[in-house]
Amino acid sequence: AATPRGIARLEGGRWGPTDLDAPWRYCRALAVVASGRALLCGLGDGPPGPRGGVVRSEDDGRSWRSARLSAMPGSSIWSVATAADGAEVALAAAFRGELFRSEDQGRTWQRLPRTFTEVRAVLVA
Known about the structure:
Mean pLDDT: 94
Distance between the termini: 24 Å
Helix content: under 10%
Structural class: mainly beta
Number of strands: 13
Strand order of the largest sheet: 4-8-7-6-5
């Protein structure tokens, strides 16, 4: 569960916090990588916040590590989407209009040249 204070995980019928290795805790979006074991979370320092990032988990959400972005987003990452067909492509959108693309299942991200006034959701089709 993405929460304003981090990521919570249900295990053994109880919700508990996860190890979130990131400078911020305001989590907005979750996505499952098609391989099934990796997860992505878009987050930032508040709504909409002046900074954001993406964290990745490779152990079913027990621990999270910051992904590498080519540029610092100007707001929280509001939406994250992955390819359902098993491709390694993922998209992330910052609330204030920046778009980022990953071609390695969310490990690294490149900022795309096109920006919008505001972005609420992205989809990889």
